[in-house]
C-alpha cells in the first residue's frame, strides 16, 4: 500500500536523482532557475518532498516535448499561466516547423537533382538550368501569393525577364543582392534611416527590384511590397538573418525615408 504523502519521508538529492533518472547537477540547476525549491535539513542538505517530486515530473514531461526551460520556469512560477495553453501553442509551432522542414527537404532534394544534371551539361546549358531552378524555387516559395497579389501576367513577365538575362547580367543581379545585405549592416550601424548609407541602401534595393519588375512600376506597388516584408516571417528571417535583429524593419524605414525625400 502506498504511504500517505503527509508522512512520506523527504528524499535527498541523490535519492531523487536516482529515482527520476536525472542528475544531481540538473536538480541544482533547476533550483537556480527557481523551478524547484527544496527544503533544507538541519545539516543543510537539500530535502525533496512530494510537491517537489510532482514539480520535477511536470518539468521532465515538458522538457521531453522540447519546451524551453525558460518557458517552463515562467509557467511554473506564474500562477495565472496555463501549461495546457502553452503546450497547445508549442504543438502548433512544432507542426509549422514540420511543414517548413518538409519544404526545406524538398528544396534540398531539388537542388541536388539540379546539380547532378548541371554536372553533365555544357556551360551555357548549365547556366540556363540554374536560372530555371531559381524561378522554380521562387514559384514553390512565393508563387501562389505573388500571383494572387500582382496577377499571373506580371509574374510571367518577371520570369521572362529573368530567363532573358545574360550570364553577366545574372551575376550582377546576384552580386547586387549580396551587396544589399552588406549595405544593410552599414546603414543599421548609423542608427538613422535617413543617413547617406541608408539612402544608398534604399536605392540599391529599388534597383534590385527593378531588375525583376522592369521599369515603370508604380511607386505604391513597390512600397506595398517592401512594407509587406514585415508581415512575412520568411522575409524577416532573410533580412534579419543577414544583418541582425530589426534589419527588416530598418530596411522598410530606409525605403520610406527615401521616398519621402
Share of helix among residues?
A: over 70%
Strand content: under 5%
Look at the helices and sheets and give the structural class. mainly alpha
Question: Using only CA atoms, what is the Rg?
Answer: 28 Å
Low-pLDDT windows of residues: 1-5
Compute the number of strand runs: 2
Amino-to-carboxy terminus distance: 81 Å
* pLDDT averaged over residues: 81
Lateral strand order in the biggest sheet: 1-2
Describe the biggest sheet?
2 strands, antiparallel
Q: Element order, helices and strands? A: HHEEHHHHHHHHHH
Shape: elongated
What is the number of helices?
12
Model description:
- With 261 residues, the chain is mainly alpha-helical.
- It contains 12 helices and 2 strands; from the N terminus they run H-H-E-E-H-H-H-H-H-H-H-H-H-H.
- The chain has helices at 13-20, 24-32, 50-64, 69-77, 83-118, 123-150, 152-164, 167-190, 196-213, 219-228, 233-243, 247-260, and strands at 39-40, 46-47.
- Strands 1-2 form a two-stranded antiparallel sheet.
- Helix 5 (83-118) runs antiparallel to helix 6 (123-150), helix 6 (123-150) runs antiparallel to helix 7 (152-164) and helix 9 crosses helix 12.
- The longest helix has 36 residues, at 83-118.
- The chain is elongated and about 80 Å long.
- The N and C termini lie far apart (81 Å).
- Mean pLDDT is 81; it is low at 1-5.
